[in-house]
Amino acid sequence: MKFGGTSVGSRERLERMAQLVMADPRPRAVVVSAMGDTTDRLLEAGRCAERGDMHGVSVQLDAIRATVAAATDDAEVTAHTEALLEELEGLLHGVRLLQEQTPRSRALLASFGERISVGIAAAHLRKAGLDAHPIDARDVVVTDDRFEEAVVDFEATQRRIDEVVRPRIEAGETPVITGFLGRTPGGLTTVLGRSGSDYSASIVGALLGVEEGVIWTDVDGILTADPRRVSEARTLAGVSYREAAEMSYFGAKVIHPKTMMPALEKGIPIRVRSTFEPEKPGTVIGPETTEVPFGVKTVTSVDGLVLLNVEGRGMAGM
Ligand code: ASP
Ligand code: MG
């Protein structure tokens, strides 16, 4: 089960998450994103630090602190989170001194969101009665050193899944794993690309060999159009891996395009469901497609694109 930023964004949402996990008695692992807009704030703090704007850094850090403080009152988790925030401050101070960021330092900076949320999410699950333990995906997901869009080594990751995650599930625990994060064999922090937690969940699920992956999000599945723009948009009952990959690649924000790949290889269905409306069945992404009346399943769009047409004499070979 994967819970996105909105679904772990506040105490109320985290309590809802715990109920949804509890309601499904099957053995499971949980993958979580950073809370709310934490990742955006971390990256903005990095840009501020790089140009020496420490006031800007404080604004972002204060906002992250406030989100975290409102989400839990577990003393141990609060202390652990405070230690992480101090480490984060130190890192941003380093960026200020260097006046530069690199893909490697940005990946490390971005990793704090999930590292903070995972402890808080696990605490909520424990409070609800589950034997939940946080796992840092850097101990599991092995990647290359394309730091901000890292490529996963599935063989090495399979070994780590079998060593670190599977035994906990077999012991009846619920591992709660950070989305988005990985680590190089040399021990450096990497991330899987923006919105990469869906992909993390799919990697973990496929390598565990789960019977179903559930992406819990803020809409009740994959829709015929972006519901923020098209009020008549309807939920699709089922789409194939290929369709889902194509839709997400061409602008459907509901799921990360890479998510379908690991699931497709193992034929594992992915269900996209809404934490706001958990009684709805959502959309199943699987090997088969379902027919719709008009043949066309969805309309997607990509913003911020420009087509430039350059004309003139002597353009050949330019
Ligand atoms: N927290 C990361 C991001 O905002 C990953 C994710 O949310 O899926 O990009
Ligand atoms: Mg997200």
What does this structure look like?
Helix 2 runs parallel beside helix 4 (75-98), helix 7 (154-170) packs across helix 8 (197-208) and helix 9 (241-249) runs antiparallel to helix 10 (260-266). It contains ten helices and ten strands. The model has no long low-confidence stretch (mean pLDDT 95). The chain starts with a strand and ends in a 32-residue tail after the last strand. 45% of the residues are buried. By secondary structure, it is of the alpha/beta class. It is 43% helix and 12% strand. The radius of gyration is 20 Å and the shape is globular. Strand 3 (132-135), helix 7 (154-170) and strand 4 (174-178) form a beta-alpha-beta unit. An eight-stranded mixed sheet has the order 3-4-2-1-7-9-10-8, with helices on both faces. Aspartic acid binds next to loops.
List keywords for this structure.
318 residues, alpha/beta, globular, binds magnesium ion, 10 strands, single chain, 10 helices, binds aspartic acid
Biggest sheet architecture: 8 strands, mixed
Helix coverage percent of residues?
40-55%
Distance separating the two termini:
51 Å
Average of pLDDT? 95
Overall outline: globular
Low-confidence stretches: none
Q: Give the strand line-up of the largest sheet.
A: 3-4-2-1-7-9-10-8
Summing up helix and strand content along with how strands pair, one would put the structural category as alpha/beta
Query: How many strands?
Result: 10
Q: What small molecules accompany the polymer chains?
A: aspartic acid, magnesium ion
Query: H/E series, N to C?
Result: EHEHHHHHEHEEEHEEHHEE
User: What's the helix count?
Assistant: 10
Rg from C-alpha positions? 20 Å
Task: Tell me what portion of residues adopts beta-strand conformation.
Answer: 5-15%
